[in-house]
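Incident log, entry 3
Record: Helix-turn-helix domain-containing protein (82 residues)
Problem: checksum mismatch between cached and fresh output.
Input:
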Amino acid sequence: MKSNQSYAREVSPEFANLIKQRREELGYTIKRVALAVHSSDGYISRIENHKRRNPNVGIVYGLSQELEIDLEYLLKVAFPKE
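Fresh output:
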């Protein structure tokens, strides 16, 4: 899967909550995170508010790096087994 592609499945609401919670724990602004992952603050806001439910693969990787969240854990939260 190329990094400019989006996930076919929707991410869980817990994914959105985790991103927002971790960003706030680190004291980062949405703008700071957006710049770090080469995105817009509106895009990050939509992820955090679960309005962007199939985020770009590269953005998810960037969020894991910037927010210091293990990528494997982040993906498990994003796509829990049903």
